[in-house]
Amino acid sequence: xxxxxxxxxxxxxxxxxxxxxxxxxxxxxxxxxxxxxxxxxxxxxxxxxxxxxxxxxxxxxxxxxxxxxxxxxxxxxxxxxxxxxxxxxxxxxxxxxxxxxxxxxxxxxxxxxxxxxxxxxxxxxxxxxxxxxxxxxxxxxxxxxxxxxxxxxxxxxxxxxxxxxxxxxxxxxxxxxxxxxxxxxxxxxxxxxxxxxxxxxxxxxxxxxxxxxxxxxxxxxxxxxxxxxxxxxxxxxxxxxxxxxxxxxxxxxxxxxxxxxxxxxxxxxxxxxxxxxxxxxxxxxxxxxxxxxxxxxxxxxxxxxxxxxxxxxxxxxxxxxxxxxxxxxxxxxxxxxxxxxxxxxxxxxxxxxxxxxxxxxxxxxxxxxxxxxxxxxxxxxxxxxxxxxxxxxxxxxxxxxxxxxxxxxxxxxxxxxxxxxxxxxxxxxxxxxxxxxxxxxxxxxxx
Length: 447
Hints:
Shape: globular
Mean pLDDT: 96
Strand content: 15-25%
């Protein structure tokens, strides 16, 4: 049996296969989630998985657990995470996606959602699922049944509905799917559009033989940047392992942050729906909030993480939400994240702009960010209090870790939800000031 204390995180379930999570654990989690869903009126659960080598074994065990709880299974097979959210919304059923996202080979886990792709995480049902798994919920008198459904075509139609396809101009793109599930969904969408697409590593291979499927790390963008330069492409796109995050590079191979991409998308969504709410997490660039205000929108600040973002999306009826980590949320996508939708909105904006992607982005790139800086410390809570005391004269909040507004610069220091780390994000007006401020804060983290 797996280590439930280790694998249940703030907003998903994730661990090392064979050591922390295994088929027995997944059966127990399936039975517990089935019981949780059944008690709330659900008759079926959508289940999908990514391309990791152990995904089929773990997801099959989970499905057996769901059935043992008396709940039917709709198995959609290999898919991107956002396809489970789409299916959950379309079928109004809870969902489970087997993936470890950007984590390296050897990890796997489950992302859960409620009917209509509603979030399940800390404070929103995940503790109940964990308690039931530990207790071992009893089997139902009548087991559930399993059916297989292929929803790829329906998903593609849904994604294409977010843009005016006729407005898209022929663009030369490079797409790095990093042997992840983008290799399934990106071609299915792009083959319907007037783009010339050069794919890097489109083969589904959960051993990640070319590079890790984590586009947040600059070293994993190098192949994409080189190919954009070599082919004179107009944009490059990099997906993570389960294809629910995407980062863009411009025609000069310059990497665009998630905040910058989200700012472009926010402009487009607010042009469609003036005055709407837009959610951003608290480590997004200050420019994102400025763009929302300039577009006549209402900025809503959220904790980091998809379950928290979805809760903020739902409670504010927000039209769009963006995270610095490359997650993008859409109200008309059941409030869930949709990387392919974000890509299409971005490319529609580029098509309408008529110029280069760097020119479209330039007015929105207003500050210099540190990127996420991680530090291992023996007592994260004590470090946060030490840093807070050093900046006591500045405006602070504790929405997620410690955020400090120092006027012309700001930072957030928060514990990781998935790893034993403190994460620092900082932004200032210039690169020199950003470096100086990083040194100032890091001296307090590791004296």
